[in-house]
Sequence to fold (348 residues):
Amino acid sequence: MSDIARSTASDGVPSGRAKPHGTTLGSLAGKSAIFLILIALLAIFAVIQPVFLRAANLLDILEAVSVTALLGLGITVSLAVGGFDLSVGSTAAMGVMTAAYAQVVWGWGAVPTVLLVLGVGIGIGLFNSLLIIVLRVPDLLATLGTLFLVGGLQLIPSAGNSISTGMVFADGSEADGVFSPTFLALGRLRLWGLVPLPVIILGIVAVLLWVLMERLRWGRAIYAVGGNERAAHLAGAPTARLRVFAYVLSGLLSSLGGILLAARVGRGDIMTGGSLLQDSFAAALIGFAVLNLRRPNILGTVIGAVLVGVLLNGLTMLNAPYYTQDFIKGAVLVGSLALTYRLGRDRR
Fold:
């Protein structure tokens, strides 16, 4: 079969016939729906609150979603391999508390602190891999257990208190360390006085992951495992190693998000991570609808994180009551996904 015939057959249109005009429009609408919704939100918020479209505010949005997007990218890789990582929020929170403890209590510098936090993230990914691949615990249950385990573990060293300079421990001793200025720059520095460093870090990570997942054999093998693990194994793919890689990468990205968050707030806040899991999963799942790909993908997750960030920022600028924001966010996201999948149904 020729490439053209194979392409038309895969679209459900008999070989040798032009695709119906409605099908083409439906496919185009499905691919662009999320982008159109994002543009519509930007326009609505700009009309109601003109300062919304100022460059400073748009960069603030990107800075705010950088951590959410990093966690979402970790989730995306775990979804691509056919898994489900619920522990990303607690891993990021563990990163925040670890970074604070290392500097405020132990007096460590920026470099060893970053290496420690990244190592903790890798360790959590390996622990998830042990549960899922070696002990064969279902992904959802294993990472749910890790969520509670890590979420509780991070509170033990500080006896459930936030970590900051001058905090007093149960034995009466006082923490006199401070956050390294170099470490704080990771979350606060603006290149050329304008672009936040976390946005640059997110961009670099996203590009590297996009190349890995969309252009390299390793990424195609990850998608193959997620599609049919047995078939991928029979085809020679190292399925176990790929799954370990996915969970370790998810832990690594989550801990990186924790580093950026700790550097931004400058303290170890025990409330960190409360909404990170929810928003990062929203970003990853919205990504399924971007370009109507209907699979986890890197570009889609970043766009999804931006959509969530725009919505939250706009509602905040409009002084929407906090108790209505989750409802409005949910309504917009559900409507967006429903519209996208409805418009793109003709691709099937």
